[in-house]
Amino acid sequence: MRLIRVLTLWLIVLVILSGCIMGNRKVVEPKENQENTNSEEVRLNTNQEAIQQEEIQEEVISETKRISLLSVGDIMMHVYQLRRGYNGVDFDFSEAFRYVAPIIQAGDFAVGNLETTFGGVGTHRVKNEKTVFRGYSGYPTFNSPDVLARNIKAAGFDLVSTANNHSLDTGTKGLLRTLEVLKQNELEHIGTYASQEDEGTIKTIDIDGIEFAMISYTYGMNGFTLKEDEDYMVNHLNMYDESYVKEMLEKVTLAKKTTDGLVVVMLHYGNEYKAFPDENYQKPIVNQLFEAGADIILGGHPHVLQPIALKEMVEEDGSTRVGVVIYSLGNFISSQRNVDGKGPHKDIGLIFEVVVEQVDDQRPKIVEVAYTPTYTHWSDKVISVIPTFDVPKDLILKGTDPNRILYANTTMMDHMKSYMEDEPSFDGLFYRFQIK
Fold it and tell me: What is the pTM of this model?
């Protein structure tokens, strides 16, 4: 009985031990199942890598560049400014731009119309002692001290148009010297040239990765003419001669075909002191420029502001693009005044902004246009341009100044949107239109 009991106990122990061994045994799947499992894991990893690659590619494609192009109207230097800019030893006009410089410098690129020359002392062509000061001249033939170029650059400007009716105020020698002074002060220029090679080359500017072709023309040169072999020196329309207009349009078309960016045309045209563009020259030429490929048209010469307009165009491939024109930027700084509020508003200008975006390698698009008014303020010491929505606290306003500033902020700003369908937003300084 004892032996049976012992054997029985051993059998129970063996059963328990065998169960433990089976519980700890690793079950080996068939090789075929292993391969299927590994394939699923590889496929899963591959899919995850592909998704990650797609996400990276999407991030690259959606990269957007955005820049701000600022422009102003006529930068002029009359005898009243010359006198105030002289400190007894030398000239300095930096105070004239002091209050607007922060706005100009905030843009990515800023342009203006240089309606004077740097011909050197005593080189102006019309001798009128009333408008001459220490060898330099205001109206009717402008000739300014070289330091003005440095002051313009310091204020934040990058490029000036030199094609206007005062391009030859100090002759061809003065024109060439003007270009040299601009070069010395690292100011780009368009519209006048030192050689035929320069004239035949369309200037392209890269602004933070977005390309712009820059072209400038003037209707004429106040009766001054160029010899046939010097005609390349100024981009002019010979008083709207059909063949000259055609040449300008061809240059715009060439610029459109050879640039991946936008085409900017700075055009000196129209009638002085008119609040709206004329039907005979301004509007037809603007339409022709848009059709030729222009995207941004910056007008000047009337010395007063003329409205902004948008133009939607259909391209050859069926796509659409939107162009913008400001028919006249008016005066930015000058000695032209309006003291009674009744005459042309020559003392009110603006800073015009065009915001451009580019997605990946697509052609850039205009997505926003904006403007803020300016006013030319006179004091005994300086004639300066001020932002009327941000009047400097240290500025002394007197006489008609408050009324002129109010007029700039209300009536003139409404005038600028005469051709716009939508209402702008206001950010405290700029009126802004979103381009759909």
Answer: 0.86
